Amino acid sequence: MISIAVDAMGGDNAPREIVHGAVLASKANPVRIFLVGDESTIKDELKQHDYSSDSLKIIHTPDSISMDESPKKAVVNKPNASVLVAASLVSNGKADALVSAGSTGSVVLSAAKHISRIPSVKRPAIATVYPTLNEFKRDDHLALMVDVGANVESSAKELVQFAIMGSTYVANVRGVKSPKAALLNMGEEETKGSEKMQTAYRMLKEVPSLNFSGNIEGKDILRGMVDVIVTEGFVGNIVIKTLEGTAMAASHLGKLAFRARFSWKMGLFFLRKGLRRIREVTDYAEYGGAPLLGFEKMVIIAHGRSSAKAVSNAIKLAGKSVRDKVCETMAQKIGELDVQPE
């Protein structure tokens, strides 16, 4: 049985929503879940639910890292923090994957401290799915962006590795055949962008296992032209946060319009099914979390405000990644290339 280590104390809604999500996941999926955190607190939360003790196990540790702590200092000063202990369960083979809704920095550093990276991968990358307009009727209305914050800058060779890992993830987890990958740049031409971006473009063209479609501009991100977009973490993080902010602004404007005029209210009434569908495809809880790619074991970073539903889906995502041997496939594809980080 696949085992998932869950940081029960990580996230804004921990441990209540984390424990509830783990219970939901244990009922819906054939996995064993290790809830890592303060035993008495976790037990108090479990009393609110009906669950099988065969599927849920508690690993006690008194420490945790809060969302407002410095990840670097906390990882050093709190070696027994729940996210670190959960990562160690993965490194010693007791668990097959890690799920945490804790701060991104603490999860990345904990994984780096305890879980081995794929050979030749120097830097991991955070990938996240986002909804598109799917103008080109591709297999999936979602696309994946890599990297969205694990690194500020990346070399051309690392961008190539991000593309390979992202494409492997989309093919195996999302079920997209021969996913199209693109490099986010300031123009479509091969000569656009910095020397690094031009080098990355040339290298991506030479990867035989990669369906590389060239550069993609910011205006085309939401059109659904490709399945995977590769960029540096600084840029990717701004893009994703901008998309999140735009969705929130649109929702706020809709509420204002509903209160403003009767005609607008009637229009929104007739559009309610479509608006409901938009909320569904943009709801992060549906997708569970963002995979941290580059390690030999799967690490899923759930949203800090994750509900029980989001946590359950994150555990489900981790289990599917293990069953489909996603990390092993990434390692194989990267190993086939003579691509070494600088």
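The record above closes out task 2.4. Task 2.5 opens with a second protein, given below.
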Amino acid sequence: MPSARALRPEFVREQVQEHDFNVVNKPLGAWERIRDNAVARRLFILAVLACIWQGYASYLDNSLVLPTFSETMRTFLSRIANGELVLKSWVSIKVLLQGYMIGLVLALVLTILAMASRLGNDLLETLTAMLNPLPAIALLPLALIWLGLGDPSIIFVLVHAVMWPIALNTHSGFMGVSGTMRMVGRNYGLSGVRFVGKILIPAAFPSILSGLKIGWAFAWRTLIAAELVFGTSSGSGGLGWFIYENKNLLDIPAVFSGLFTVIIIGLLIENFVFRIIEQRTIRKWGMHS
């Protein structure tokens, strides 16, 4: 008879507690919490830059060349208190939003046409190849001839600045949607606008959001440049005109306070509007790399 097979001994391991490894749960100190906070790190960088600015401007001791940070902040706060910078900012933002929204709608229409037919795709590629490299500010003299001095001329160049980067990024995002996602939409009977809205836009939203950010940056720079070069719009100027006027008056601290306002608005839009959109869409959907 064959010999009985030996049984394997069973070993039971008791659970090892953390204290057996000398693991100590130590709460983070104040410095560690600050260091792990992205907002605190960025504020620290801004504070360092402000100190460098203050030190170098104090060394030059010439407010016509470079006012100190403290002098710029005093001017900035005084112009905020009397409402001048608030009014100028609102004039600029109001015109910017009009041009941005029109450019966004036109970009989406072009992109949908490009996805719907080969002719639409050829149209988008041809127009972007022709017009995207053309600086928006270069069209302002023609816009002034066609539309006159006022908001319509500036809105025209803003639409040009916004439309092409949004259209290119949106089209690139749509083209990058996987075939599996497309088949899911077709299996659910989606087509046309419903297919674009429920399948293509959510799947391509990271690219779309990148286009929105780039379009915003292009529009903001174009608006300030247009106001700097061509002055007021409909009798009231925005931030660019504020900078230009104070440059002529040699009020350099006011010029820097205008530039400071432009930077602050850009930071607020980037870190609140677009950041909130990203958190509620891309990060929530698990699409962030």
